Amino acid sequence: MELLLVSHKYPPSTGGMEKQSFELIKGLGSLTKIHTIVYEGNESRLLFFFKLQSQINKVLRANPSISLIHFNDGLIAAVSLLHAGYKHVKRSATFHGLDVVFPSRIYQRFIFPKFNNFDLLFAVSNATAAACIARGIAVEKIVVVKNGVDTVPATPVKRTILDATLSSKHNISLHGKRLLVAIGRPVKRKGFSWFIIQIMPLLKEDVMLLLIGPVQQKRSFLTLLPSYLSNKMELFLGTPSDEAALHKLMQDPEVSQRVIRTGKIPRQEINQLLGVADAFIMPNINVPGDMEGFGLVCLEACMQGAKVFAAASGGITDAITDQKNGRLLTSGDRNEWATALNYNLSGSEPWQLTPEEVIQFTAANFSWKKMSEEYYAHFSNLLKS
């Protein structure tokens, strides 16, 4: 079996899709012969897409044994629908969530149904698969292969040592505070501003929230567009649609005393924070035309033994199994979130899972090796048919 893997979500850019793409290519490369066409940021993305058809045909001419092309997200798969010259090769694609529910009438009516012409479609979660089927994709075309996670054992660090590091390196003071951690780009579906407004006032005063992720310093040009257009552009470009709300909230002294935005920090420090935090939160809310396809960051927190509280929204329910590697709470339910966090932070309702149990369950059910082997098995079955 010889494969061509195509992706525009790839390092050095960082994010869940980039990580999944990198690990899939690495994993499949250890199982069979592969070729790749990936966007590494050396040219404009528009130019990469413009040249893609000729690049694919060039690779196929040089390697006639290639039997399947895999496009690793819906956008690049949609671009390929316009291509010619390689209809003789089987095609597959992975869908991650937003590339299924993107709120464009043209995309939903005229483009998305054409994915039935592909030979096989992968969904990263059952929620993503259900969204595909609800939009007309044939059930027999869809398989679910969940994302993996790095399963390297956690390296514990004492809270006092981490507090000292954060104070000296980032001027962040957390001494004597209970610590909640949230990670990700500030897009509306992540629910960061919702959590600050709705939940933080209901938590005990010694609870601090650390928001880890990029902070946009400049005003986006999208704010100049009409809302019906800017909303679609924000989703399409992956821009931080919750940034304006967060920026405004942080001007309030009562908020800024309890919420800290760190910006990007090294992975090692993130893992150390997750290991000592009183809880990791992923408070996603429902946003029309958007969805959380999986929830990789939850698994990354689990692998550090963190207490994970996550919204039962979209594909998060494929990453977190309630009472096995975390707690699933109703998305947008103010009382449920505040009650669950206050009980656990105060010890009134002790956390039933040990860090070792969380790590063991997560590692046993999710790994990049397992994900790659499942892709390989589905490719093999497809090429035998």
Provide a brief overview of the structure.
The protein has 385 residues and is an alpha/beta fold. It contains 17 helices and 12 strands. It folds into 2 domains: 165 residues, 3-Layer(aba) Sandwich (Rossmann fold); 207 residues, Glycogen Phosphorylase B (Rossmann fold, 3-Layer(aba) Sandwich).
Query: Order of strands across the widest beta sheet?
Result: 2-1-3-4-5-6
Question: What's the total count of β strands?
Answer: 12
Q: Helicity level, as a percent range?
A: 40-55%
CATH class call of the largest domain: Alpha Beta
CATH topology of the largest domain: Rossmann fold
The tally of domains stands at 2
Written account of the structure:
The protein has 385 residues and is an alpha/beta fold. It contains 17 helices and twelve strands. The strands form two sheets. The protein has a six-stranded parallel β-sheet, with helices on both faces. Helix 13 links the parallel strand 10 and strand 11. The chain starts with a strand and ends with a helix.
List the helices and strands and how they pair.
Layout: E1 2-7, H1 16-29, E2 33-38, H2 45-62, E3 68-71, H3 74-80, E4 90-95, H4 98-101, H5 105-111, E5 120-123, H6 126-134, E6 142-144, H7 159-170, E7 178-183, H8 192-198, E8 207-212, H9 227-237, H10 243-249, H11 253-256, E9 259-263, H12 267-276, E10 279-282, H13 296-302, E11 308-311, H14 316-319, E12 327-329, H15 334-346, H16 355-365, H17 368-384
Parallel strand pairs: 1-2, 1-3, 3-4, 4-5, 5-6, 7-8, 7-10, 8-9, 10-11, 11-12
Helix pairs in contact: 1-17
